[in-house]
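anyone seen this seq b4? input:
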Amino acid sequence: MKELSSKTELLQIPLWLIQTLKQGKICLQTNGTESIQLQIENNKMDLNFLQKELIKYLLELESQMEETSILEKLKTLKNLAETLKRNGSTITISHKGQKILTLGLEAQPKISKMITGTNAIEINNLIEIIKLVK
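predicted toks r here
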């Protein structure tokens, strides 16, 4: 499998999927174990991560395992979330069916806007995010 050379290339994948696929479900496996359930419908993508390590990787894309806070890691998703919002699209990120983040058009941040610096990221469950990145 080709390795992506940059964070930008990796973050383009969800945008491409939302724009290309109108509707559908995909289950991804790693080493024979289901790891991600993906559902796309009406410019909305639901990503349900079944493996903790994959969410950790997503949140550490930019930080490269540096000692950064969870909130700083969430800021790394800012460009993706703002692009989604401009394009009228939404991505929800869940862990084992429990929604933890909403990115893009349907995000309705309250306090998280002050933390992330954008109204395109809603933290649905900060406690679960903290558990996942430890």
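The longest strand covers residues 33-41. Residues 100 and 127 are 9 Å apart (CA to CA). kinda curious what u guys think
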